[in-house]
Amino acid sequence: MNWSIYLSGEIHTDWRQQIEDSCRSSNLPVTFSLPVTDHDASDEAGDVLGAEESRFWRDHKSAKVNTIRTKTLINNCDLAIVRFGDKYKQWNAAFDAGFCAALGKPYITLHDEAIIHPLKEVDASALAWATTPEQVVEILKYVITKE
């Protein structure tokens, strides 16, 4: 089986690349998908539908266009990894985790101990909580290769 893994969340570090590289070097049968990680492109996604004077409506249209991708990829994944960084609040990642929970999709949270409390509900529905990309890869190795 080839596992489809959705990588949600924080876009300011190379955590995705670390996981992808480690899985590749471990020869794990995985395919990764992710949201648009170019912040400006994500913010501009709805601009094709026409200019907006109100920032709310611009963000609203862009969020809807981005959600086409996000919902499709989450619906089609076997597992999601949801990363929360400590520099910015990733409300979109929390929403993705909630969407996974509603669909019954397994997900792993990835974040530092310093933000355990604000993520308690998100972590309560996760099937694992990791603090490093290496821990995520070890979990993947176990669930994918153990018989």
Descriptive report:
There is one protein chain. With 147 residues, this protein is of the alpha/beta class. It has one domain: 3-Layer(aba) Sandwich (Rossmann fold), CATH 3.40.50. Helix content is 48%, strand content 16%. The chain has a 5-stranded parallel sheet, with helices on both faces. Helix 1 runs parallel beside helix 6 and helix 3 runs parallel beside helix 4. It is globular. It starts with a strand and ends with a helix.
Summarize the structure.
This protein is an alpha/beta fold and 147 residues long. The chain contains six helices and five strands. It has a single domain, classed as 3-Layer(aba) Sandwich (Rossmann fold).
Task: Throw out a few tags for this protein.
single chain; 5 strands; alpha/beta; 147 residues; globular; Rossmann fold; 5-stranded parallel beta sheet
CATH topology: Rossmann fold
Report the sheet-strand fraction.
Answer: 15-25%
Net shape: globular
Low-confidence stretches: none
Question: What's the structural blueprint in terms of helices and strands?
Answer:
Blueprint: E1 3-9, H1 15-25, E2 30-33, H2 39-43, H3 55-76, E3 79-83, H4 91-103, E4 107-110, H5 120-125, E5 128-130, H6 133-145
Parallel strand pairs: 1-2, 1-3, 3-4, 4-5
Helix pairs in contact: 1-6, 3-4
